[in-house]
Amino acid sequence: MGTRRLGFALVAALVISLGITSVFYARITRTQASARAKTKRIVAAAVALQPGTPISAENLTEIDWPVNVPLEGLIEKKEEVTGHVLMYAVAVQQPVLRRDLASSASLGLSAKIPDGMRATAVKTNEVTNIAGFIFPGSHVDVLVTLKPENIASTETRTVLQNVLVLSTGTKMDPDPNGKPENVNVVTLLVTPEQSEKLALAQNQGTIHFVLRNGGDSASPDVRPVDIAELAGIAKKQLEPVVKHVKQVAAVVKLPEVYTVETVVNGKITVTKFPAKPE
Q: What is the CATH number of the domain that holds 99?
């Protein structure tokens, strides 16, 4: 009997321990599930996508995206992306955003032009192209050397600053190995007002490109430089013009008659004298 009772007690203890363990395991599982961030399926790139070409369904995939991490422009259906052209490159497993997509009517270079902007081409050579080290995606300043009509000396001035290079020659993407290439034409992304300035600068003078650091977006106020300053000749300071004001004395009109009042013993006597004796 003692052995049976001991065996029964052991079985009962095992059942109770299993029950308690199951209850704790269920609670922990529910706690972890509630703490786990909720996700939703969004469209992402299955391969590295390059701008300027239509996107096929085979190049797209779906990934889980945390709901508590908002990102403007997320797309949940592949049908909304297929056939569109990218304006910017998208890496593998990165979400495709609505701002990355060009309008359905845009192809090639036009797909990389945002609304309100323009693409304008500029002739270059080996020097102005910085020996071929200007690539699509680079940022440059545009300088022009000209001789203004109202200035006797030739001068160089900065026309545009921090301008994005859309393409070099016919290439819209940089060489993956960074290999330089001399081209005859560089296409820049500019505003309509900047395109007018650039067209006038090309017509009136010689264009030069100045390559920028990709992280430098400053636009300092740069004054023009002429030949005299380049040669170290001090500019003649303009003497201030001093205007001499002619002082005119005010004309005082004399009265025609002087009046004199005399008071004697409380009696007032008024006597008038002419200003000019006759």
A: 3.90.1210.10
